[in-house]
Amino acid sequence: MKFTTPPNKSYTEDIIILKNAIESGEHITFSKFSDGEWAVLANTNFNNQEFWFDPENENDKIKRKKLIEAIRYNNERYFIGIMCAFVFGLDAHRAMTKISRLPQERLTWADIWVNANYKYYLENIIPLFSTRPVLLFCNENGDINNLPFRPHMVFPVKDNAWEYNWKHIDIAKHVMDQNSIRDSIVLFCCGPFGNILAYELTMSNPENTYLDIGSTLNPYLKSEKFKRDYHTGEYDFDKAIGVWDNEAR
């Protein structure tokens, strides 16, 4: 799989590329790094009620180091999403690109599933979660029974999962090895902990499809701490198309 590249980077084409890879059973990993992850990478305080980070906290320093490893993981089947140049500014967008060190064909938008692409995601990506066994990492308060697909296995996590559920990394590796989990779809709805899980599980068990899907299932799970604009239709985020640095090489 390869994403579109500058100067012809395409928000609508990149989600179709992801859809085709998932549909064909390609063993890819997609991990998204947005404003919360950027705050951690930039070593600044952050708290959005669902996860938080304190640069002076010794445990958080360890998490940040692991997040840097995750954004820099160089594997031909490993793809990441970064912040939109319009929403978060060209400087932040370029800084995240530089930190990642990945080639342009393995980079896309962190919000590739949402905003103007959300309708496509609902109609074309979610149905694919019924075509293969799904392992789901999501908030323990989520309404699993309300999902439009049936997870094969669920790993419930708490708010600020990377503080309270760090052992899930080794637990998931063990469970997947013991049960010979292969050719499955693994979904992460757990903030920056999902980035770390995607990285660790890709290294330990590359024969699955790993997708960081963020808040996209919130309308079903109903466990979010705040409403996303693309869910509510406010501020025209449901029409927003990602902007890229077309001078990038």
Structure report:
The protein is built from 10 helices and 9 strands. The chain is of the alpha/beta class and 249 residues long. The protein has one domain (11-239). It has a 7-stranded parallel beta sheet, sandwiched between helices. A two-stranded antiparallel sheet has the order 2-3. Strand 2 (46-47) and strand 3 (52-53) form a beta hairpin. Helix 3 crosses helix 8 and helix 7 (168-178) runs parallel beside helix 8.
Helix percent reads 25-40%
**Total helical segments:** 10
Average predicted local confidence, pLDDT: 90
End-to-end Cα distance: 18 Å
| Number of β-strand runs | 9
Number of domains: 1
Largest sheet: 7 strands, parallel
Strand content: 5-15%
- Globally, the shape reads globular
User: Which structural class matches the secondary elements?
Assistant: alpha/beta
Segments where pLDDT lies below 50 for 5+ residues?
none
Order of helices and strands: HEHEEHEHEHEEHHEHEHH
Output the radius of gyration.
Answer: 17 Å
What is the spatial order of strands in the main beta sheet?
5-4-1-9-8-6-7
Describe this structure in a few short sentences.
This protein is of the alpha/beta class.
Keywords for this structure?
249 residues; single chain
Lay out the secondary structure:
Elements: H1 11-23, E1 29-32, H2 35-41, E2 46-47, E3 52-53, H3 58-72, E4 78-82, H4 90-100, E5 107-109, H5 118-125, E6 134-139, E7 153-157, H6 161-164, H7 168-178, E8 185-188, H8 192-204, E9 209-212, H9 218-221, H10 229-232
Parallel strand pairs: 1-4, 1-9, 4-5, 6-7, 6-8, 8-9
Antiparallel strand pairs: 2-3
